[in-house]
Amino acid sequence: MDKKKKLLLIFVLALILRVIFIPFTLNLRVITDGSSYTVAAMSLANLKGLKDLISQEPYYSQMPGYPIFLIPMFINADIVKITNNMKGENLSNYAIYNWRAIAVFIYQAILQSLLVVLLISLLPHKFILPAGIICSIDPFNIMFAVNLFKESGLMIYLGLFVYFFLLIPKTEQRTYLASCLLLLASISLLGMCLITAPVMAIFPLFFVFFYYIFYKDKKVFYIILSYLFLGLYLLAIYSDTGAFILRKTSNKSLILESVLWDGDGRFSEYDISYKKDISPVLSEINSKYNTFEEKEDAYLKYAIDYTIKHPFIVLYRFFKLNFWFWMDYPGSELYIKTLPFNKIFDFLLRFYQVIIVVFSVYGVFIGLRSVELGNNIQKISVMILILYLYFAIFHLPFHPVPRYYMPIRIFMLVSFVFGIYNIEARGTEAQRHKV
Questions:
Q1: Which of 14, 249, 339, 406 matches a 20 to 30 Å C-alpha distance to 60?
Q2: Which residues fall within 8 angstroms of residue 77, CB to CB, at 6 or more apart?
Q3: Helices and strands (H, E) in the chain, number of each type
Q4: What's the CA angle centered on 355, arms 353 and 360, to 5 degrees?
């Protein structure tokens, strides 16, 4: 089967599996994050900026990257009806959005399926089918393609950034102008990442630093221009609120929570440690201060003071939480509890996640030092390593919820295939020597 037919087959398989999952998602309760993205999307679709269209107050609970992604689905929405249904205990399932929820999910399913095809098209021929199939059938990719989470939008932005960035080098088939346009696309997509999630704020610097170490390519410094997107967003917030903040939702309390969290690390057990270790401290701080800014400063100060007093405890918790951050699976709090025989599903999905992570990490290091795997593999492995390091080091302090690593899920699965292929190739080689 030639390359084009393989890619078409993978696209169709990925899209069908995601669309089939939509009816199941429609019965789920919309969580607060999901509803806040739609409020922002409706405001942007009506050219009102980021505002609550009922109260007309500035609305910066979420950054605008994912709401911008949702704009096409919320043009001419019934704002009053949807907003009223989203308040307090009235928050119900995705049916409150009528056909718009289905439209969003199909839209995301198409884009994620296309992203899978684009990324694996960069791989050597022998990897296309196995990588495409695992990315298409992965249950977590399917879950998050048809749900209202910013991670779904961030996956598209980040994945396309990597795709265009890897295409930049000039070749005989690619002109200088084409390379410049690819660089511009990369800068723009990374800029969208910066205004999608607060935790991405220092990713361009991290990326430039490590990529330059590997390749000594000065063109990578142009990527820093992506901060223009974040700068414009911060100016917009300042004009409305008089403060330079990433969003009007506490980020520093999440750092404090990660420092104090003393559970076993699994997100499913989060509530136990929250009530025992975290809630009393937050309540004490909240009772002392009135304004959002004062509370944010107090959260950060407490986290820093605690870290200075107990550095080894915090370091131990960091590694423990980092371990569970990768080994736990996303979506457990959304789907698994609603299924019959949920304990069996829980065990199987945890086992599957452990296998993926172990072979994925192995695959990255194999890809970094192996020339036999084929062209482009080393560069792709460098990109995956940078993503792994960034999410492990900088994402964790902002609350280790397993769904937060979903933006790099496709890359994890690609390096998993590298790892499996290497083991299989070694086994074949060993068998040949025996003969």
A1: 406
A2: 42, 45, 100
A3: 19, 0
A4: 95
**Candidate ranges 19-33, 113-127, 321-335; pick with highest mean pLDDT:** 113-127
Quick one: which of 429, 421, 424, 426 has its CA closest to 360? 421
pLDDT at residue number 98: 67
In the numeric block, which tokens belong to residue 349? 């999905």
Average pLDDT over residues 339-364: 84
Mean pLDDT over 168-186 rounds to 84
Reduce the secondary structure of 338-396 to three states and give it as a string: HCCCHHHHHHHHHHHHHHHHHHHHHHHHHHHHCCCCCCCHHHHHHHHHHHHHHHHHHHH
Q: Within 13 Å of residue 182, how many CA atoms lie on the same side as its CB?
A: 18
Instruction: Indicate the burial class of 352 (C-beta count within 10 angstroms; 0-12, 13-18, 19 or more).
Output: middle
Cβ density class 363-391: b for 16+ within 10 Å, e for less: bbebbbebeebbeebbbbbbbbbbbbebb
pTM: 0.87
Between residues 81 and 244, the one the model is more confident about = 244
Tell me if 43 sits within 8 A of 52, measured CB to CB: yes
Q: Residue 217: how many CB atoms within 10 A of its CB?
A: 12
Across 359-383, average pLDDT: 82
Backbone φ and ψ of 244, nearest 5°: -90, 95
* Interacting residues of 55 by C-beta distance below 8 A, sequence separation 6+: none
> Would you state the torsion angle of the CA atoms of residues 150, 69, 22, 352, taken in this order, to the nearest 10 degrees?
-40
Dihedrals φ, ψ of 29, to 5°? -75, 135
Q: Please, what is the Cα angle at 191 between 152 and 257, to 5 degrees?
A: 60
- For 374-402, how does the pLDDT look when each residue is reduced to its tens digit (9 = 90+)? 557 888 999 999 999 999 888 766 666 77
As given in the structure block, the two tokens for residue 33 are 């994050």
**What does the pLDDT look like over 276-287, one tens digit per residue?**
777 888 888 888
| Percentages of the chain per state (helix, strand, coil), in multiples of 5 | 75, 0, 20
Alpha helices of 278-341 — where are they, by DSSP H? 279-288, 292-309, 311-327
Query: Two tokens at 134?
Result: 């695992």
List of residues 6+ apart from 41 with CB closer than 8 A? 67, 68, 70, 71, 73, 74
Please state, in angstroms and rounded to a whole number, the distance separating the CA atoms of residues 227 and 230: 5
